[in-house]
Amino acid sequence: MAKLNIVIGTHGRFGEELIKSAEMIVGKMENVKAVSLLPMMSFEVFMERVNSVLCDLKDPVLALADIYGGTPCNVLTALTKKYHHNVITGVNLPMLIDLYLNIANNETLDMDDVIKSCINNLQSSGVHTNKMVDKVNR
What's the confidence (pLDDT) of residue 41? Predict the structure, then answer.
């Protein structure tokens, strides 16, 4: 298994539930953490929580956020200067599963390739199924 920590920052408990959903498919995931921005939580409190998670991680970190420009994304991005991690927005279940399986099935990873793979997966995971069914039925 390659050494990479995944930190998921989201509005509400979306990241926590995303991890649970992924584990239904791939089994227990190691080195994956969620940091949830809850209602009424200030930017400063959320920043402290994310900082606390990141400061304990030794291996490289890839942070996944739900919305570009949202507080989880902004906090994770602001902390890149301190922790030197990468941040990708638009996290979804196919991206997380693919990323985790990539880590689990390789001893080493090139971060640029990992990021490209995440973005490609994100772009290809949205499908208008009606059109796919129409193609099959032709």
Answer: 97
| CATH code for the domain of 26 | 3.40.50.510
Predicted TM-score of the model (pTM):
0.94
Residues 29-64 pLDDT 10s:
999 999 999 999 999 999 999 999 999 998 899 999
Q: Report the domain count for the chain.
A: 1
How far is residue 18 CA from its own chain's centroid? 9
Contact 5, 33 (CB under 8 A): yes
Q: Please give the residue range of the domain that contains residue 126.
A: 5-137
